[in-house]
Specification:
It is a single chain. The chain has about 300 residues and is mostly helical. The chain is built from 13 helices and no strands. The chain has one domain. α1 runs antiparallel to α10.
Length: about 300
């Protein structure tokens, strides 16, 4: 594994961070129901991956064992839950708060490792505590703003737990399934679950203005494909820790884009909470000896 960050690697990391940072602000700007956004994002990504999966991984897809398929389907279900709750939270609270809280997913992954008997260094535990305090600060600020914003924070928290499950289960599935086969079935599963959820809840799936469709395509092409694909590629050339650290830049990245585009400027207290979350997660990543092989992007 190459550990040196050459210009090409740094350039790809910048592209990946920008792609995932666009996710929250773009989806928050959409005048489209949350479950519909989540469905189309995964649906378009599945269609984009399909030609490669059906040509290069057809034999592998046919030969998936019951256990392999079960893990991938479960991972897709977790991904659907993540998007369902997180995108809904973006309509209720600020992009900065929602993104920071959903990025707590790495804390839940580390906590899962702890339940499996993996010992954590003291600084990693300190990082978890600092990030938790930061989340409490952000939630307290949002509670003062409105109960709706606080509920949005709770939804983002549920989304972070769901994406942690996606990471843990997906990591096991990826041990025996290729990226192409896994991505195709996982995204397809998430899309189907979200389609059912949107239909049951009565959310409109079509009839949007052309600009809305373009924004949905933008988020699918950037965060869903470009962000995931770039970081998955980088995992073969640099350490998971470096990738995880790079992904933490989504928090300030999304906040800055939301401030410039949506005029969502966080209060001083909220900024303090966001910085605590970021600091805590940096401590966890730097001191966690069992960093996940893949850190999922938003």
């Amino acid at each position: 594994m190459r550990s040196r960050l050459d210009p090409t690697t740094l350039g790809l990391m910048a592209v990946g961070v920008l792609a995932v940072s666009l996710s929250g602000p773009v989806m928050a700007s959409l005048v489209v129901p949350a479950l519909a956004i989540s469905f189309w994002r995964n649906g378009f990504a599945t269609v984009a991956v399909a030609p490669f999966a059906l040509s290069r991984a057809r034999r592998e897809l046919r030969g998936l064992t019951r256990r392999q398929l079960g893990l991938i389907l479960l991972s897709g279900g977790c991904l659907a839950a993540h998007f369902g709750f997180w995108v809904t939270s973006l309509t209720m609270t600020s992009v900065a708060s929602s993104t920071a809280i959903v990025c707590l997913q790495i804390i839940w992954v580390v906590a899962w490792d702890r339940t499996q008997g993996i010992r954590l260094p003291g600084k990693a535990i300190l990082g978890i505590a600092v990030a938790f305090i930061g989340a409490v600060v952000v939630s307290g600020v949002d509670f003062q703003a409105s109960t709706r914003a606080l509920v949005g924070d709770v939804f983002a928290l549920i989304g972070s737990i769901a994406i942690a499950g996606y990471s843990i289960i997906g990591g096991r599935a990826r041990q025996s399934a290729s990226t192409t086969a896994y991505t195709f079935v996982c995204y397809g599963t998430a899309a189907m679950v979200l389609l059912v959820a949107a239909l049951v809840s009565g959310q409109q799936l079509v009839g949007y203005a052309p600009k809305q469709w373009l924004l949905i395509l933008l988020v699918a092409a950037t965060a869903q494909l470009m962000g995931h694909s770039v970081f998955n590629y980088l995992l073969s050339t640099i350490s998971p820790m470096v990738v995880s650290l790079a992904l933490l830049l989504e928090i300030p990245g999304a906040a800055l884009i939301a401030a410039a585009w949506l005029h969502q400027v966080p209060s001083v207290a909220a900024v303090g909470g966001l910085l605590l979350i970021l600091l805590g997660m940096v401590l966890v990543v730097l001191n966690n000896r069992s960093t996940p092989e893949e850190a999922p992007m938003s």
